[in-house]
Amino acid sequence: MSQNQWIYLVVVLFGGALLIWGLLKTIARFKRRRISRLGDIEDINPVSTVAPPGVTDNSTLAQAADNIQGRFSIIRRAVIVAGALLLLPLLIIPFSSYLPLTSISVLISALGIIIGIAARPIIENFIAGVLMSFSSSIRLGDTVIVDGYYGVIEDITLLHTSIKTWDWKRYVISNSDMLNREMVNFTMKDNFIWAHVEFHVATDADLQQVRDCALRIAGQYSSAKIKEGPRFWVMEMGPTSIKCWVAAWAESAADAWNLQHNVRTELVIELSANGIPTQLNRHVMQKAYSEASNG
Fold first, then answer.
1. How confident is the model at residue 91 (pLDDT cuts 50, 70, 90)?
2. pTM: predicted TM-score of the whole model, two decimal places
3. Are 51 and 161 part of one and the same domain?
């Protein structure tokens, strides 16, 4: 073997080893970032609720940390194997005159086609899982709406993603499908939610009284961390009702869920107690009057 061939082999081996080392360092950095983020997650439930006996957020987060460790270990090994397979053709170039390259290329092509057809779903989901491991748009603990399901991303494996819905069901999606899904992510940048409640009142209702009532109730549940108070809007004026919105800040998606529930409940109670006619009340009263008249 000539001196030039030796130099070529050394350069290829050194460059390949350096590249693999850099990729492994990057993988380790992302793994540490994902595990450290678990420490910032206080609640992995889309709705504030008491967990069943034996189930705790700590156990769920511990399992998630183990899954992250395992997932990145597989990615690290895959990078080493892929790097070695990519270096091999480069290493044999100086000896190409001594090898039956045509036969080797045909064999490799045939094997690639067979493996690609047989393992296409697994390969697609594996690649998607690797991409999701390094993505900042889909992360463990994010509160999302996917396909109409509201929940928290509880686990991301190399093949599928599990979403824990508000009623403690698990919605499992293959990673390749997950990457193609349109979703609402409530916690991609921060946890704050500008939560609103929509309701209708009759056209002859005292709108100032409705506004004061809605703002006061929403103010009781608005986040103290944000100075902006609740807001009230008239969204639509119809022939029989006025559509109103009241909005307030919540500190998380789970808090927003509770805020909306509490505001709706107290609005119904207080509007009814103050004799403020709503569209539903007016319809019920007219129906009862009509039935009484016909009777």
1. confident
2. 0.71
3. yes
